[in-house]
Amino acid sequence: MAVFQLILCIIAAVVLSSFISRFIPKVSTPLVQIALGAVASQLPFFPNVELDPELFMVLFIAPLLYLEAHEIDKSGLLKTLKLSLSLAIGLAIATMVAVGVILHAIWPAIPLAAGLALGAALGPTDAVAVSSLGKEAALTQRQMSVLKGESLFNDASGIVGFQFAIAAAVTGQFEVGEAAGEFVVSFIGGALFGLAIGLVANWLFETIRSLGWETTTTRILMELFLPFLLYLAAEDIAHVSGILSVVASGLFIRFDRTGVGPNVARTNIVSNSVWGVLSFTLNGAVFILLGMLLPGAMGNSWEDPGVSNILLIGVIMLVSLVVIAMRFIWVSAMLRLAHDTQTGHRRHMTPERWRSAAVMTFGGAKGTITLSLMFTIPYAISGGRWFPMRDELIFIASGVIIVTLLLANFLLPAIAPNRSGDTSLEMTEVTIEVLRRTVEELTGRVTNENRRAVLMVIDSYTKRITRLKQRTGEIDPQRYAQLQIDALGWEKDYVKQRLLDTKRSKEGTQANRDLEIEACERLLDQIMNSLRHISTDRNSGRAMWQIRGRMRALQRRTLTLIRRTSSRIRRTTPLISDDEIFAHTRMVQLAAFEHVIDRLYEEMTRDTYNTEHCSALLLDYRRAESALRARPNMTGSAKTIGMAEDVKRESYGIELGVIQDMVEAGEITRAQAKTLRRNVYVMSVDADSSL
């Protein structure tokens, strides 16, 4: 029961970390998860359960490595294979030896074999951590290919080296010749075993699909169980490296690319979603566990009178320096020795190449694999004695992980800053992709009842895509978006003034004034909701401003409800139908559009805004105005428009979800996502007019 409670608490912490990361985009998700784990470990209801190291390896390492190998860009991997293998094997061995020797020299209480094990564990690069850190940095495709390829191969080499070092520490014996022979057998045998299983899996999946036996459920279950079964079979039956078997199989299996048709596409979509959730959960759980482990390991070492706290911190700094310095020297040497693909000559180290070496150095953050390996250190060695300095080794590894993550989090954006201003072409293409995915999702939700309403919303998205394609590369998206925001402000000011004038006026009947008031308040709520989401000039008091705005909107709705209820009871005025309110709201919106159009014409004669931006926005408002005027019977479509309103709100949720998915997948940066989210609310008013 305690284990089950621990799992639930960890999952809850992972979910919480995904929300917190959205509010502090400058801090990477792994760092947030580590902090959450440290805080959670101090809570009384958070269980403290020790996991079996072997179970930890199977539960976390096998599926994560399989997914990493399966999703890596194979062509990019081949192009950077030499450099990736050099880092994965050569640098991993050099780091293992350097850390082990230096650590044993400055702290003799740590056996050489245990120091080598720490060095081996610090060899692997965590590509998942790098991908989350890289959201704020502009890494080239080659740099990402090198880092991902390195992490894939040095996971295997680091784990095999770690296992041999731990075996030597436990038994007290280490034969170099025998270890090398076992390493070759385990390495080659694991790769061959994984390839063989990959061949069988490909044939099996294709046969099941061709016979029509495959269902989404069976496909997902087989895919999920494959890395676990493969690892266990390699270790317990074939007695070869389970890690290398999982990697080789993940590189070779291609069942998700076979077959055509809607059922296959639907299954692949579900598969990607399941793996996305699983990988985020497993990686998050590892970092949560790291945070949970830190207080205990720190407390044991910190309170031990036989261990110097200053020495502990100093060792962390020294080991971090050794790991980073060796990596920078190694990468720089490989870049210097590399031959130009066109001339065949070695290239000189230019400032740009030195910067690239620094990027790949600080991009090699340690994380999941390092921590997982340190968790597998046994508690006892031969003879029943406790494993020497186990807590201190885990503490040192955790400290190095945090140091490398902090350096990657704050130095990578400084060395390789993201393009602060996305080009019009790039941002427009990203926006079109978001809209296209939203339309695809909406298309799948069409039913006989909502067909007309959904098609109205899809039509509005289609028009937006068409307009974006027409002006691809012609408009600065940031300045144009600011003009759109200002135009919404002009609409708001016009509607507020019209509402105020109506409340003060005594002309006309009470029914007409009530109709005007309700229409203005509805449109004002809609505009204010958009502005609350996209405002950039109220950062300090934005939360309070949003709360006050929502309270005012609630107050307006409450007064309207009271007024209509009072009229119904007293029957002092005729009741206003929804059809009348919809029609009059559109009339007010038309007047607001005309006001903005006049204002845009005025701005074109000034220097406040770019003339091309004003012209483009004028066209958008003219189209929206024409769409409203061309509607044949606004008063007879309240029900359909009401359904369209619901679909429209749903589409905004879909659009925001698509943006978040693209951020987590690394397809767009956090800065781009922020701009896209603002655009969702900016365009909401324009979309209303086209429904």
TrEMBL record:
One Pfam family it belongs to: Na_H_Exchanger
Transmembrane segments: 55-72, 84-107, 183-205, 225-253, 274-298, 310-335, 356-381, 393-412
Organism, scientific name: Bifidobacterium amazonense
PANTHER family: SODIUM/HYDROGEN EXCHANGER, SODIUM_HYDROGEN EXCHANGER 7
Protein name: Sodium:proton antiporter
Record keyword Protein transport present: no
All copies of domain Cation/H+ exchanger transmembrane, residue ranges: 13-414
Location relative to the cell: Cell membrane
